[in-house]
Amino acid sequence: MSLARNRQSPPPEQLWKSWDRKARKQGLHATVYSADGSQYKGDWQKDKRHGKGVYVWKSTGDFYEGDFANGTRTGFGTLTVKDANGKFQRQYAGGWKNDKKHGYGNLFFSDNEHYEGEFYADKRNGWGRMFYADGSTYEGQWLNDKRHGTGMLRLPNDNRYEGEWRDNKKHGQGKFFYVTRGQLMEGLWVDDICKASEMKDFGRDQAIIPTPYPIPDLSLANPDEVLTEAKESFTETDG
Predict the structure, then answer these.
(1) Around Cβ 135, how many Cβ atoms within 10 Å?
(2) Residues 33-54: pLDDT tens digits?
(3) Cα angle vertex 181, ends 156, 214, to 5°?
(4) How far apart are alpha carbons 61 and 239 in whole angstroms?
(5) Which residues lie across from 81 on neighbouring strands?
(6) What does DSSP assign to residue 209?
(7) Rounded to two decimals, what is the model's pTM?
(8) Gene Ontology cellular component (predicted)?
(9) Domain architecture of the chain: domains with CATH
(10) What pLDDT, in 10s, does the model give residues 76-122?
(11) Given pLDDT bands bounded at 50, 70 and 90, which one contains residue 60?
């Protein structure tokens, strides 16, 4: 018997495997619809959204335009949402990782209130600057969407606080500059309240509304020691 007659050809591929292979999305595709009616147009790799693309949510009309990796928003992209009046507003532009805000970006809360800075796991984390609707600004450290660490809050009248924060409140050593009246209060804050401080004149001659009289010199024998003891007592209570 010849070798040619003994040689067996491989079994034919099952049809479902062939169909599945042909159905897999690879490269640039036109609009592809999800089961819920949402749609995506852009690059694919191994049947996942990967590269540049636009995703539109059917339920809200919101859409994301930017980078994808392994089926998630990863890289740089812009999220645009529809408000109650049906008007589209850019909500976020910046870095993403696994469908969450990550890295540096700009988050818009309204037309006159936004944040620019660092994000981690979808929240403001790290360094950032917040512009509030009332005209005040905060620049400094953030932790889980709260002012936390070291930062400066400048009020609309240019008075400002520079110092430590915890859970969105002034907490720790800090300075409050009363620019409007030319005074400086320096001391210890606990839960947004100054517990122990020293008040000084600061730029009183250039102040908009200066105090009638300068602050007199302290008459305590050891003012620094008194302030230190007061700060330590409040720190122990807080600790």
Answers:
(1) 11
(2) 778 899 999 999 988 999 999 9
(3) 165
(4) 49
(5) 89
(6) S
(7) 0.78
(8) acrosomal vesicle
(9) 23-110 (2.20.110), 134-239 (2.20.110)
(10) 999 999 988 889 999 999 999 999 999 999 999 998 999 999 999 99
(11) very high
